[in-house]
UniProtKB/TrEMBL annotation:
Belongs to the major facilitator superfamily. The chain crosses the membrane at residues 21-41, 61-79, 91-108, 120-138, 150-167, 179-199, 230-251, 263-282, 294-312, 318-341, 353-375, 381-400. It is found in: Cell membrane. PANTHER family: BLL2771 PROTEIN, INNER MEMBRANE TRANSPORT PROTEIN YNFM. Its main location: membrane. It is a multi-pass membrane protein. This is MFS transporter. The keyword Transmembrane applies. Keywords: Cell membrane, Membrane, Transmembrane, Transmembrane helix, Transport. Residues 25-404 form the Major facilitator superfamily (MFS) profile domain. It holds the Pfam family MFS_1. InterPro entries: MFS (IPR011701), MFS_dom (IPR020846), MFS_trans_sf (IPR036259). The keyword Phosphoprotein does not apply.
Amino acid sequence: MTLDTLRADARTEPYRRGTRGYTRITLALFAAGLATFISMYSAQALLPALADGFGVGPATAALAVSATTGVLALVIVPASALSERFGRTRVMVVSAVASCAIGLLLPLSPSIEVLIAGRAVQGATLAGVPAVAMAYLAEEVHGHDLGAAMGRYVAGTTIGGLVGRLIPATVLDLASWRWAMEAAAVTALAFAVITARAVPASRRFRPQPVGPRVLTANLLEHLRDPRLRILFGLGFLLMGGFVSAYNFLGFRLLCDPFDLPESVVGLVFLIYLAGTVTSSVAGRLADRIGRSRVLLASIGCAMVGLACTLAASLPWVLAGMLVFTGGFFAAHSVASGWVGLLATRHRAEASALYLFAYYLGSSVAGAGAGIAYGAGRWPAAVGYVAILLAAGFGLATWMARLGRASTAAGALR
């Protein structure tokens, strides 16, 4: 073997923790998560102001959020297919920058209809980052360090979700909703620029043909794998439970026996920081002691935390939500990273299927929680979420059994 061949092989070796390439790739994906989720959720904190500013009801104003996430879910699979043809980094960078550019224009919307339409378009452009990020990491990072790398990306999404809510809510005390939304867009753009400058070019990616027939075949290949089906189901259940709890937590804290002011209730989103820590820790633990163990423990923690919120004590409710949030993000970090390990081919489509189920759970299961809350207030909502988590725990247990039965379990756990 020649010296040139050895150098070429070294250039295509997966990134290992401690190397400059690993630092760059995790920084770039961390910033991408921030940019994406700031853009995705910046309108949520502004819904009352949008309703007042345009003279519409809360349900109409809420479309400024649901239009983004709904279209994003629909576009994730096509975006993953584009990355198979044009490359992972190109799709991610174009997606991040284009979505931020649209975000800069949204505050100029003359009507709520234009704003909602613009948010829908922004959702379509946002899809490129979550659709590709997991596949890109799985291709470029060594399997023994993938959990930690995926944990950093998920940590970026948690902080992005938090910052995307806090920045506009803070600016709204000083200026109109238009300036508040613009401030969030400028912040997202700054992180998108970091992503574009820091992200390493793909070294292990090989372009694949793209077409409806090929795409369908790739998707069916993943759906035939029972382990991937379980992980897709987990994404649906976990995200559905998480969104359901946070959708109605504010109602819980505004009413008896707490009667907190709305400004204080808004600070509850700081609990998201628990997910920033646990997603990274869970990723590292999964690499060391096994994904099944960490996944089961994470879902178990979420269930314990959820039960604590039934107490009539504010410290218990907040502590419970802290544990619940940490457990959810830890489980999501492990499950999403596991998808990349199991899908040795067409990883982008596998990641897209997971995220499609993930955001579908947000919309479908989250809507079901409204029925439960209307029937029995917070205890009924907790019971609904508990059923989702229990089903997720059952799927995680099944996954562990399949892993033990597989001859490749040692490499994947």
